[in-house]
Amino acid sequence: MTTPEAEQSQAPRPEERLEQAVRAAEQALIEYEIAVETFRVEVENFGRLHEQRLGPLYARIEELDAEIAEAKAARTGDPEDIRRAEEARARVLPIPGVEELLHGWMDGQGLFPEAAAMLTDQAVRPPERVRPSEQARKLYRDLARKAHPDLAQEEAERQRREEFITRVNAAYARGDETLLTELAEEWAAGPVPPERRPSPAEELYARLEWLTQRKELLTLVARELEDGAIAGMLRLAPDDPDALLEEIAARLRADIEQRETTLAGLQGQG
């Protein structure tokens, strides 16, 4: 016969069913991520193959369209034909010297100040010399004395002070009296008390919510892939995409032949 204490120890914990739900959701998400990533790789690989095999054919068609438009414009002299020819040629020509143009003008953060000044016809201004006010100096000295890391007894407190002094130094370097005042008030208020740790049940609910959001994000990624032109082509021939590419290539080669005949006729007329 079991005692009440034994029965209580064998009773399931309140979070047990929630833990099972989280584990099931995690496993389902892993499988879904694998499926989406597999599909993404298939689409990406087919896209590369599409570009390798059909890209030169598309480029040849664009070049022929430009030459046909130019031949028509040369024959008629009509301003509208000339405009169409210029537009067709612009679609073929790459933008000249982009890398050379940008080299030394910009980086990942945008245009350098000198480049921006040149583009806006403004003079390049030298950096301003910062002269902190007397109040800023006083605030800085007080904060440096009170918050110096060497006054800390524990490593966590030392780290907190080092991070705070870094902010103080940055504000003083800019002569920002307002920010130094705010930092002085922050230091006087003391460290922020640690947040209450969530209960096991709250952590599990938060995990379930994150898993749901992740699934929704992956669903959007999958939908975007499925709606793309490359995925649409894949759906036409899932078992033999190479044959589909060859079929499209054959049609493009026929279009090229037709355009070459049209161009030859225009050039012959000229």
Helix/strand layout:
Layout: H1 4-10, H2 16-76, H3 79-92, H4 98-102, E1 106-107, E2 110-111, H5 113-119, H6 134-147, H7 155-173, H8 177-189, H9 200-227, H10 229-236, H11 241-269
Antiparallel strand pairs: 1-2
Give the structure's gist in a few sentences.
By secondary structure, the protein is mainly alpha-helical.
Describe the structure.
The chain has eleven helices and two strands, in the order H-H-H-H-E-E-H-H-H-H-H-H-H. With 270 residues, the chain is mainly alpha-helical. Strand 1 and strand 2 form a beta hairpin. The protein is flat.
User: How many helices does DSSP assign?
Assistant: 11
> Which word captures the global form?
flat
Distance between the termini: 110 Å
> Uncertain segments of ≥5 residues (pLDDT<50)?
97-109
Largest sheet: 2 strands, antiparallel
SS content category? mainly alpha
**Quick one: how many beta strands?**
2
Question: What's the arrangement of strands in the largest beta sheet?
Answer: 1-2
Q: Report the order of strands and helices.
A: HHHHEEHHHHHHH
Average pLDDT metric = 81
What portion of residues belong to β-strands? under 5%
Helix content: over 70%
Q: What Rg, in angstroms, do the CA atoms define?
A: 34 Å
